[in-house]
Amino acid sequence: MISLKVGSLTGLSSKLGLKRSTPAPAEAEPVAAAVPGKVKAPKRPTRRRAPKPGSSFRPKLVLASASPRRLQLLEQAGLTPDALRPSSVDESVSKGEVPRQIVRRLAKAKAEAALKLVKNEPELAKCFLIAADTVVAVGRRVLGKAELENEAADMLRLLRGRAHRVYTAVTMVTPEGRWRERVVETRVRFRNITDQEIGAYLASGEWRGKAGGYAIQGIAGAFVIKLVGSYTNVVGLPLTETVSMLAGEGYPVALLWLAKAEVDAA
Ligand SMILES: Cc1cn([C@H]2C[C@H](O)[C@@H](COP(=O)(O)OP(=O)(O)OP(=O)(O)O)O2)c(=O)[nH]c1=O
Fold first, then answer.
1. Of ligand 1's atoms, which has the minimum distance to the CA of residue 166?
2. Is the distance from CB of 80 to CB of 74 less than 8 angstroms?
3. CATH 2.60.40.2250 fits 60-256, yes or no
């Protein structure tokens, strides 16, 4: 069990903007007794414990995704989900639907499907649940995941030498059933990659299952000449927005960082 001494938390907790759940204990002085000659035992100082990953103190966190990138990004932010509950939703796009609508609809559908699963699991029934969806938009075209090599080739030919936008929607459901969502847009410009480079990139297989047929976190990072906005949004989960949504609804983000620091230091 990780425990933090009150004294050691005082400075850090105020720096982190954490509020104490109990006031700082007063100096433990013996209190004058009602019965002459008897002294009441001093009150034991209240100790605040940082939540241990996996402990019951911490609300459960469920990631409704099969994407290893989303899991890695959450972990990078010091938040390890207690469970993964991916779902397969129909990702086909209706005519006239714009990128923001698409990602919002799909992230919501993924959250709804995962929520149905966790409702039947008592230990996860009261959890924070996160789902996300990413698409690439270039001109009027919306590019979903490339599943076949020729799809990825077409997408890369379309993206080379010009700017495109990457949209990710994050949907969060709180243990109390509140729904929150954010749609984040990042602008990316690729240099004019050659056919030969596209051929070599396809051989890497890194495009498979990625929106727009590329993964910025791999070789395709070398295609980018400009990026405006959130990098993690392109990889599939905008961390600033995700972490603020969780913290804003009471998920103890900063306390978990503190607990992790304790573990790392031990
Ligand atoms: C543009 C881009 C996308 N991607 C990935 C993020 C997403 O995993 C994927 C877009 O597909 P999504 O349908 O958003 O997600 P997914 O099917 O992979 O996972 P799940 O629905 O279970 O959450 O593309 C990258 O990894 N790097 C990139 O540079």
1. 1
2. yes
3. no
